[in-house]
Amino acid sequence: MSVLYDLAKDTYEMFRPPKMQSVSDWADENRILVSESSAEPGRWRTDRAPYQREIMDAFTQPMVDTIVVMASAQTGKTEAELNMMGRAIDIDPGPMLFVQPTDSFAEDFSKRRVAPMIRACPPLQKKVYEAKSRDAGNTITMKTFHGGSVSFTGANSPTELAGRPVRYVFMDEIDRFPDSAGTEGDPLELAERRTETFRGRGRKIVLTSTPTIKGASKIERAYMTGTQEEWHTQCPHCQQFSYIRFDDIKFDKEEYKDSYGEKQYAVSNVRWKCPQCGAEHNEFDTKRCPGKWVSKNPRAIDNGVRSFRLNAFMSPWSDWKDICRKFLKGKDDPELLKTFYNTILGETWEIKDRSGTPEKLYARREHYNAEVPTGVLVLTCGIDTQGNRLEYEVVGWDREEQSWGILRGMIFGRADADGTWEEVDDLLDREFKLKNGMKMRISATFIDSGGNFTEDVYRQCAKRNLRGRKIWAIKGDEGMARPLVRMMKKDRDGDGSAKFIIGVDSGKEAIMYSTTVEQVGPRYMHFPVDYDRGYDEEYFRGLCSEKVVEHRRMGRTTKRWEKFYERNEPLDMRNYARAAYKYFRWHFDKLESMLTGKKETEKVETRQQVEKRKSRHIVSRGIRV
């Protein structure tokens, strides 16, 4: 009888109509956050981040089939997706697909985020089949439950993306998706195509991501097709609602130096200035003000697309002081500034046109007061490998990435010839004179190992590093979101010497940014007027020889660096020299004392000493880019 009873109960459950409960109500009632996947374990409270309510409840809105969230990091967008998925499993089940940028990301997400959620949520614990040995119903990449299943896959996996029909699709961090899943095409289109069977029958597509490059950002493009809703905060003074923008954040700051002589910042008195009335409010009060979603494109609801935009200033998990410190650290570095815009402000980063720059740089060449001019603290070198020659540039740097072109030249000969490398040795051993008579040598060299001489470059670099010459082989890695420098995971020749991967696109972007800096100081580029140093008109054409070009194919927009002037070796050499400068942590105070002959007199202050001085001398200013 009990078997028949259980069968009848299960049959009834299959045909029971969905419970009328929103995602936020379901989460408040059932969701438990655990310490292994959350910084705030305990019962879920939607009121902790009120902006999440409307995003989650759009999932059960009948006329909405696509939800887009373009947001900064740490705003809870992934937790909102998990709540949508949990509510669907419990109340309105169906086949699901959860897509992450790669297969490894998908597996890690399933293990670290989904599995703990299921274990801590009683309704899901009952409905998701228990994992058993040799049971395909519950694995890392698939969870099966009454009425459906959820598959976890990477956007690089065409088989899963083009598989069976699904009713629910969740796609996380879509700006990190590849342009094509193998040879099958755009992973977004592949995944969305799987929901066609359920069009008009309760399908839901959820897209979330922090944005990347303007014009090439997938999440920005999806956001613009929707209702374009922004979370507006009510000013306690004038009662008007406004979106908290970076330009309206004011703060006090003070600079100090760490033990490496690098600039750090102490930030205090951060406040939001209402753009309507000018009244200022601190972080604590602002985060407790009422808020609401305001749509800039309400007619998009007719197409079933709701889109939301958030930045870190609304998040209860953000710290405004920390946000301001990150801005100050990155304001003169386009790589850090781009990350700040994407992950903190939730905005795309715009690459600007650099036309006319080569002529301006050539015209401002200057006379140095020595072979190595005053201000240079470290020398690096970038070497580009060609079929019949090596081209090199030696660059001087200060602590704030102000640069001086020192020497540009060529070594004729193939990279597999010992004679060519003897000339490389002469360059690495060369001593460059300062005004005070002291001498400097190149501290780090990156040499391109691409082309036909990869193994030769590896072998020659390993041999020279054993002699302390500090030259490392590198390979370029294209892609807008690649890190600037990272070490190769495995040495191909097994000699144990380090080899590096260079994110050439991010490096080019930083160099092009520096070419537009016109005030002497951080990131300003100096060039010598002396013709024998190699900085002729051809050099500057090559330095600015590439630009970002937008391509549109099959409805998709992509951006990539392309040459518009054939000889781009100067750009590559400067890219490698800069990567060598950026990768290693230089003790600038020590270098400066060695080069000038002066003792290190500047005392490095502790944070407590800085805090003690803050009340005596604080400069108040707004934020400007």
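(ticket continues) Second input and output from the same batch:
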Amino acid sequence: MSAPVLHFTPRAELEPQFNLQAFIELCRNSEVMDAHLQFDKNVWEDGFLKGQNKTNRVIFSTLEAAGESRPEPSFPEPFLSFAKAAVVYLQDKRPVTTQSTRIAALRCLEAALRQESRGSRPTAVDPVVLDTAVALAKRQVSPAVAYRIAGQLEYISEFMASKQFISLRQRWKHGMKKPQEVGSRISREALEARKEKLPSAAVLRALAGIFNQAVEPPDVMTSSMTAVMLCAPERINEVLRLRRNCLVEGDGEFRGKLGLRWAGSKNFENTTKWLPSDMANVAREAVDNLIRASGPAHELAAWYTANPTKLFLHDGAAHLRDQRVLSLSELALILWGSEDAGNQANVWARGYELPRQPMGGRRVGVLFEDVERAVLSMLPVTFPFMPGAPDLRCMDAIAVMRKNEMHANRGTYLCMFSCVDNEAITSRFGTREGRASVFEAFGYTEDDGSPIELNSHSLRHYLNTLAQMGGLSSTEIAIFSGRKDLRQNRHYDHMSSEEVQAPISRALKAGFTAELEPVAPSGRNLMMRGEFKGLGLTAAHTTEYGWCRHNFASEPCQMYRDCINCQEQECVKGESHKEANLRQLKSETEYLLMQAKAALSDEEFGADAWVKHQTITLERVNLMLSILENPEVPEGARIRLDVSNAPLITADDVKPIRVIKARKGRALQ
């Protein structure tokens, strides 16, 4: 991570207004967000969003204008210059993917200044103004969004006070309680959230039907991308950044498995996701469909990558390359493959202001070089790379189509391609008023006859819920979903109370066998009471890695679900299924430690605590595995680590002793 390029130190002898002016001048000339090029503009371009062809815009409009989706009026001065400088400085110190919440906080702050009759002076901000800004946010947006805006206001106030633009007697806190999530699975709210977040059975049937019936390229592109999203819980922007060689045949421990190379997002790195075996054939077919549907566009992208200054001509128009003047019919042939579209070609030429060339009589034409220049101007702004994916060339991407090919009522260009974006896919899911959906086109409706409306993210919720029902661990679900924060898993868990209880019910009916305790290789399902007494334990329960000696009659467990870091945890050498669980824990912990270290380098709050915890966990796992794998430690030995990571080993007939050296068949002090 590169060091911050901006640093402002206020001068104590100066008034707040003079410090503020010096701060604005520093940020005005900064290269962060290209401020030195667009500081005087009131609408900034801030790069491309992943999976979208539109730029991420920063609009410095007032709260009232934003409420009406208007870019004007902008903030009044001097708040306008302060807001621009603050966005630049804070992006350098604590970067965000989109400025929407930060800008919303500044809008509420400026509106609060006006409401409290403080004009537009940033130096007039005080606790009263900040409280008013929070109140405005509560009235404007949902509780969840208002909470995030209040958090940004708190951060901005702290920043303003540290730079001596304002004076606060004590640190200001917004005082909002975090909105409560739907915690109950049997409430009316939980039922509504489930219906809203998960696709209905009719939607899933429709998606399967369209996937098998689609023939036209737009339908194939839409249905096959949706099919890929049902193979792994990924975001649509990640599907739009798939490479043409995204399929991976497994080898080694993944032999026989099919993987997909996924492009990460939200700070999750690019990775290979191994798919459930039942979805492998679906993934193969979907990717084959996408490669075939995007084939003509791929040819165009490859041509322009190799010939960035030359116009592509399809076979039917190749003879026109050396022709100086083109008739309107010939122009139509180059653009759309039809000489009968001369009138449309005339409109196109006027739109690009191409000079007319006389061709005898009343006939006019256009210069080939002018047409070439106009067509080349239609290339994606980021060419040869995909918008929002600076390391992915258009010619290597799946999400490319010939220009207008995704539109039913527009002529498809045979000489130019475009990058398929989020809107091109989601607009066909029935959520956009006035736009025919792919479900309507194929005659699918909900079971009650109403039109189907699909949110692409609901497929991610659906697969995450299936993973919860299938018993995957939180770490496995987070990794499979491309998610850095395990706590976010709960937002995607929409199991009903019956589904949560189903595994327990099955286990009870089965007599506490396989569902609750893995079957040992020897086939022994249950331990006799006499054997248990022989272990020398007065109370115990099984864990993923061995036994726990904790007596719940004395006190609750203080190390819930952190068994490996507990000195009451005891492993038994020879229980291969539990040793396998330890190796899985090692793999997961190594991954989580890597993520925690990356977060630490990004200066994320609390990352140091995660690094410390995962480091200790990995040390204990490695130590336990080294003992279990030591051939001099006898089968049946019970191993326990104390708080200092010193091993404690026993054989069946030996009391627990601290081991310094072990020889085969016996333990030595």
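Agent notes: The chain has a mean pLDDT of 80. DSSP finds 24 helices and 20 strands in the chain. Closing as not reproducible unless the customer responds.
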